[in-house]
Design brief:
heterotrimer, A alpha+beta, B alpha/beta, C alpha+beta, A: alpha+beta, Alpha-Beta Plaits, 2 domains, 4-stranded antiparallel beta sheet, 4 strands, C: 2 domains, 10-stranded mixed beta sheet, two-stranded antiparallel ribbon, 11 helices, 22% strand
Chain lengths: 145, 229, 385
């Protein structure tokens, strides 16, 4: 008797018609989990890294007596001193903000530099670099409101 | 044979395993066919290659050489996923030692094949109930396997194998662990399934059971000889 | 019957293994929740102080200080020169560019005094101004506004047995105790306050000011700019915004937070490793079961789904329990770490993050075991039958 091809046609077509539909559950689970973990890491890691890279930085703010502006060459020279990260004058040029690594240098060294070079610099404030940047950002936001 | 003339066709089948540094031939060379609706027994001594042959027929054990066609499909030319679907659609396995899932009740064990067949929950309950009724265990549907006797577990395993009404039932030593009375019950059940239209292939080492089948495939040292039941 | 029924039934049966799996995640999540809750409470405590004192500026004389360190170990320093302010110079404070933001200016004179053989700190100030500045003070008695009245700190009153209405002589002047402060936990507990000019005479510092407290009108004022403007007027002064001092404490909290995250990451990594190892063991134990499922027709994806659904449930339980236990530990620990503080509420966002993190880690840690289970050769699995 010839084999009846029609008897199990539906089943045969079901088996042969199997195609991988879309993305498997495992791939979904792995992808979503990885995105979640990477997302959480990307939220936490930058802050922690920023903290560690700036934890030793302090800002000291000076003013020249007699309301003079800070000369550019002095600012450049200060910026090259050991332990100094940045030296920036404010927009009026009256105040100088020096960012330094307190594990390498200190305020006394800066004061010595000013004395040796004949600058009568008045120390206005010493504050943590991160704190000053954050406060500046907050106060700028308040000004725009 | 070209795979188009019978429900199951096996040609030049061979299966070798590596046992350490030695190559073991579980199947040396087998060629035969099984028609739709037959009740066939595969008989041989322990280690003759019976279970290996059954696994090859079920798409579970890729042969080293040769072909297995089922319903004109070259079984080992299909992908792994297609072979899984083949087993879901075509085959009901009755394993040696029943092999029920110990943490599922009888009813839940029977429903396992339905969980991946896309059958609705309500229909699952009906189909499982029908299967359990057929094996006479409707009243024990909520028992766990360790609360059932050996014979009862074997019947649950049969119910699980047939719940989806597969065309082919592969039974590996279904009476191996049973007393004679229970063994007779199981054989009668398999005969009944066959009479209802399912092709049943039974592996056994007990030649006496062959009298119940249409044909017998004698397996010895990896070779086979076809005989009448 | 769905695949999740198989997963849930398996977890129900293997309770011991579930407890083990959950414990690993629970400890990691509880650690994170505890540490974050504690640091959040610390930050909140600092922010509360900022709310109370944030608009205040303190001006003190700049002292010449010789810092002492031996081989990098600092042992403090020696102050060898302090020049107090002249009271007459204080009008310059109101001449800064942002003077419209300035509120109360409260100058003070300070000096030690010997009373009944013990030393006590005298503080001369405009007492009415002082009372309007220190709104959190609570006291017995009533300030009279008379120049001979004294406001006494709680600790000083106890040590010297001072009572309301009691009169006492300081130098050549008679004074009467009109008010005794309740304990504040601050420096005022240990001082005697009186009229600025009377105490200048008592201390022999006529026209001298030891420190000035300045309050700004608004919280949104550019406090740092005001501070710099005042510092420009008083080059010999140290002008500090209290916000700045409070914010330095925030720095310490940031450091603790960073350290906490590091610890938490480590603990969570160990917890995930535990999940991974336990799941691998579970998969090896279930070779037979997986072989049956594959023989029945389960695809690789179905097997993965069963394992990963179990991981999902374990992650959910670990996340919820970890969050609750972490909050419990924080609730117990915070009163010991921050005075007069407790865990104020359960942070729902933190709860959500804990849950998501726990589930994500459980899934990731179970991924390889799930893949391994799904790729098990059914025939090898069945040979295990």
């Amino acid at each position: 008797m010839a084999y009846d091809l029609e008897k199990y046609r539906d089943k045969r077509e079901k088996v042969l018609g199997v195609r991988k539909k879309g993305i498997s559950f495992g791939v979904w689970a792995a992808t979503v989990s990885a995105i979640i973990i990477v997302g959480l890491i990307s939220m936490v890691a930058p802050k922690s890294i920023a903290y560690f890279t700036t934890r030793n930085l302090d800002d000291v703010i000076y003013k020249l007596s007699g309301d003079q502006s800070w000369p550019q060459d002095v600012i450049h020279t200060i910026a090259t001193l050991k332990g100094i990260k940045y030296a920036v004058a404010d927009k009026d040029g009256a105040r100088l903000v020096v960012t330094f690594d307190r594990s390498i240098t200190d305020i006394d060294s800066l004061s010595s530099f000013f004395k040796e070079n004949g600058y009568h610099a008045v120390l206005l404030n010493v504050v943590s670099h991160r704190q000053r940047v954050q406060t500046e950002r907050e106060e700028a936001e308040l000004e725009t409101l | 044979m070209n795979g188009n003339d019978h429900l199951i066709e096996i040609q030049d089948l061979g299966r070798e395993y590596m046992a350490g540094d030695t190559t073991v031939s579980a199947i040396k060379e087998m060629s035969f066919f099984i028609d739709d609706g037959e009740f066939v027994s595969i008989v041989g001594q322990s280690g003759a290659g019976k279970s290996t042959l059954l696994a090859a027929l079920g798409g579970l054990n890729r042969p080293t050489r040769g072909n297995v066609w089922v319903d004109t499909m070259d079984l080992y030319g299909l992908s792994s996923e297609q072979r899984a679907d083949f087993r879901s659609e075509y085959v009901g396995f009755v394993f040696q030692s029943y092999q029920l899932i110990t943490y599922l009740t009888a009813m839940e064990n029977v429903k396992i094949p339905l969980s991946i067949a896309g059958v609705k929950k309500e229909d699952q309950a009906d189909m499982a109930a029908v299967a359990l009724e057929k094996v006479g265990l409707q009243d024990k549907k909520n028992r766990l396997p360790d609360q059932l006797s050996g014979g009862e577990q074997e019947r649950v395993a049969i119910a699980r194998a047939i719940v989806n009404r597969p065309p082919i039932v592969l039974a590996d030593e279904p009476t191996g662990n049973l007393d004679s009375k229970t063994a007779d019950d199981v054989i009668n059940l398999l005969k009944q399934l066959n009479q209802e239209g399912q092709t049943v292939i039974m592996v056994t080492h007990n030649k006496k059971l062959c009298q119940h089948t249409d044909r017998t495939v004698h397996v010895r040292d990896g070779l086979c000889v076809i005989g009448e039941g | 019957m769905k695949l999740y029924n198989i997963s849930l039934n398996n977890l129900r049966r293997r309770k011991g293994k579930v407890i083990f799996l959950v414990s690993g995640l629970l400890i990691g999540i509880a650690t994170i929740v505890t540490l974050i809750s504690i640091t959040q409470s610390m930050s909140r405590d600092v922010e509360d102080r900022l709310d109370r004192f944030g608009a205040n500026i303190v001006m003190t004389p700049r002292s010449e200080n010789l810092s002492l360190s031996y081989g990098g170990i600092s042992v403090g320093g020696v102050t060898y020169e302090t020049v107090e302010f002249l009271e007459s110079d204080l009008t310059n404070i109101r001449s800064i560019k942002n003077s419209q933001n300035l509120g109360i200016i409260a100058p003070k004179v300070l000096g030690p005094w010997e009373l009944d053989g013990k030393r006590v700190l005298l503080m001369g100030a405009d007492l009415q101004t002082e009372l309007s500045l220190k709104t959190w003070w609570q006291f017995k008695g009533m300030p009279t506004g008379n120049p001979d009245e004294l406001i006494v700190g709680s600790e000083t009153a106890r040590i010297f047995n001072l009572a309301l209405g009691q009169s006492m002589k300081l130098g050549n002047d008679e004074f009467v105790v009109s008010t005794i402060l309740h304990p504040t936990g601050g420096p005022e507990d240990g001082i005697i306050m009186g009229d600025l000019h009377r105490f200048q005479n008592v201390l022999g510092k006529p026209g001298r000011i030891s420190m000035v407290e300045i309050s700004a009108f608004c919280r949104g004022c550019p406090i740092s700019e005001i501070t710099l403007q005042i510092a420009e007027k008083f080059p010999n002064a140290k002008v500090t915004a209290l916000k700045q001092a409070v914010m330095s404490k925030m720095q310490s909290i940031e450091m603790i937070k960073s350290f906490s995250y590091g610890v938490a990451v480590l603990v969570i990594f160990i917890g995930s490793l535990l999940v991974f190892v336990t799941m691998m063991g579970s998969v090896n134990e279930r070779t037979r079961e997986i072989g049956i499922f594959r023989a029945i027709g389960f695809r690789q994806g179905h097997i993965m789904q069963i394992i990963l659904l179990e991981a999902l449930v374990v992650g959910l339980i670990g996340g919820i329990l970890g969050y609750l236990i972490g909050n419990g530990i924080a609730w117990l620990a915070i009163p010991f770490i921050i005075q007069e503080s407790t865990l104020s509420h359960l942070d729902v966002t933190l709860g959500g993050v804990s849950l998501i993190l726990s589930v994500a880690l459980s899934l990731l840690a179970s991924l390889y075991p799930a893949v391994k289970a799904s790729r098990m050769d059914p025939s090898s699995a069945l040979r295990a039958l």
